[in-house]
Amino acid sequence: METEAPLTDKPLRLADDFAQRSIADRTSDLTFPAGRMLLEIIAEPRRMADLTLAEWDGFLRMAMWTGLWPQLTMQARRLGLETELPHPILPHLQATANLAAACERSMNWERDRLGVALQNVGPPIILLKGAAYALCRFPFAEGRLSSDMDVLVPAAALPQVEAALMEHGWRADEENPLDAAYFRRWLHEIPPLHHETRGTLIDLHHTILPLTDRLRVNPQLLLDAAVPIANTPFSVLAPVDMVIHAATHLFRNGDFSLGLRGLCDLDGLLRIFGQTDRFWEDLLQRAPQLDLTIPCSHALPCAVRYLGTPIPREVLEQVELWRPGWPPPRVLDWLFERALIPRDPLERDPVRKLAIWWLQFWPPPRWRAVFSWLFWSKRIAGLNPFRPRQP
Question: Is the peptide bond before 91 cis (omega within 30 degrees of 0)?
Fold first, then answer.
């Protein structure tokens, strides 16, 4: 288990009035205006109606690059902005709405087929991330595109669940036996399963962090607290666990390819659940119980800074005390900013690539994993005799 920073009397890096400042003020130090514009429109979608056609040129590229354009499209339609947008933008709006509708139909059908395949399986079937957001019909997830379905089941039930899925047409996506062995030994999921006719993907998880990670999560705590969804065979994580998982997936698994979208997911969850009784108290108790204080200490301040997420000051004070002392917080904050907020996609950004690379490999894995042959065979092609060699 990683050690947390000791309690000190040092002044908090989050100022008293930080959460009350505007997005423009909080992000005034960003050196790339396209990123600032995107953040301001995420916070206030009606501002899309005020953009000139020249501003749309940069904004549309950024929205598409970050994976947020489908959700912004649905917000624009919900707000009735079509009549106020420049005419050349309307075809993009309609095409994206059609794509989002097709994706929703596909995911609904895939969820139905998953329920049929697993109807005789005993353990609860818990949907994660985008599949859970869609099932719960969260407003922030309207239009959100998903390329797979993430499912959490008890580790002991994996053989039974995998066999049931294979009977209904899903097949392991990893043909390399050593890579498959690495998945099953060191990761939090088995190799992805794709359907042989529909081509859809299922990621079957037995926990939420790779076993290479130094943080140790007890998945049974998540399974025991899961919430069944009425009139479906599925469950979702409890609200506080859903928030912690969103923070962990982004800020611990290091998946920053669509990092800003992941941060928007977290913002949406906090705005919904933060209005319920005892949510913030439960969050401060649950994160230490799951040993996930460190990802929460990164995620919540970033949500406040970049998206203006309404988080009580006393919660931010406690979260600040969870931050590890190494790497220095200022260094990590800089890495998070460069990874989360891309420059214009037409510009080369090697610094962002470096930041994403660093965050993918920090913190270092457990020593037990480092000394595993499977760990290195996955990374070094020469150690894997089954991996095709490059000519």
Answer: no
